[in-house]
Automatic annotation (TrEMBL):
<feature type="domain" description="Transglycosylase SLT">
    <location>
        <begin position="58"/>
        <end position="130"/>
    </location>
</feature>
<feature type="signal peptide">
    <location>
        <begin position="1"/>
        <end position="37"/>
    </location>
</feature>
<dbReference type="InterPro" id="IPR023346">
    <property type="entry name" value="Lysozyme-like_dom_sf"/>
</dbReference>
<keyword id="KW-0732">Signal</keyword>
<dbReference type="Pfam" id="PF01464">
    <property type="entry name" value="SLT"/>
</dbReference>
<protein>
    <recommendedName>
        <fullName>Transglycosylase SLT domain-containing protein</fullName>
    </recommendedName>
</protein>
<dbReference type="InterPro" id="IPR008258">
    <property type="entry name" value="Transglycosylase_SLT_dom_1"/>
</dbReference>
Length: 138
């Protein structure tokens, strides 16, 4: 075989190897990223779900302010120091299983649990927000 034929064969192999390495690297980068796409709702979807579940504007606004402060409407939010989880930062997060087994990935389940918690402890989301304003937590 001549050198020119070997170069023609080697060049496509190098290109294919480079593409394979790039694809593998991209795959590793994607698998290392947070799994937000696998979760049940984006922040705007979670807000829309909450609006449907909380028809009273004052109660929704209070709930929304708490959730914005606690998780930024990220259903996967996890507090690295306490382990609190989800939209309403339940501690421990698995408490929300009382509202549904899909508590890790379902915004509606997290909202339901959060509303029940706020009603039982503070009377309403407005009561929870008043407490949050005074204490920086609820």
């Amino acid at each position: 075989m001549s050198v020119s034929i070997l170069r023609r064969i080697a060049t496509p192999k190098k290109a294919l190897t480079g593409i394979a390495v790039a694809a593998a690297t991209a795959g590793m980068a994607l698998s290392a990223a947070p799994a937000h796409a696998a979760s049940g709702a984006s922040p705007s979807q979670a807000q829309a779900i909450a609006k449907k579940m909380i028809p009273d504007a004052a109660q929704y606004n209070a709930f929304s302010k708490i959730v914005q402060h606690e998780s930024g409407w990220d259903i996967d939010a996890t507090n690295p120091s306490s382990g609190a989880y989800g939209l309403v930062q339940a501690l421990p997060g698995n408490k929300m299983a009382t509202a549904g087994s899909d508590w890790k990935t379902n915004a509606q389940t997290q909202i339901k649990w959060g509303l029940d918690y706020m009603k039982s402890r503070y009377g309403s989301p407005v009561g929870a927000w008043n407490f949050w304003q005074a204490n920086g937590w609820y």
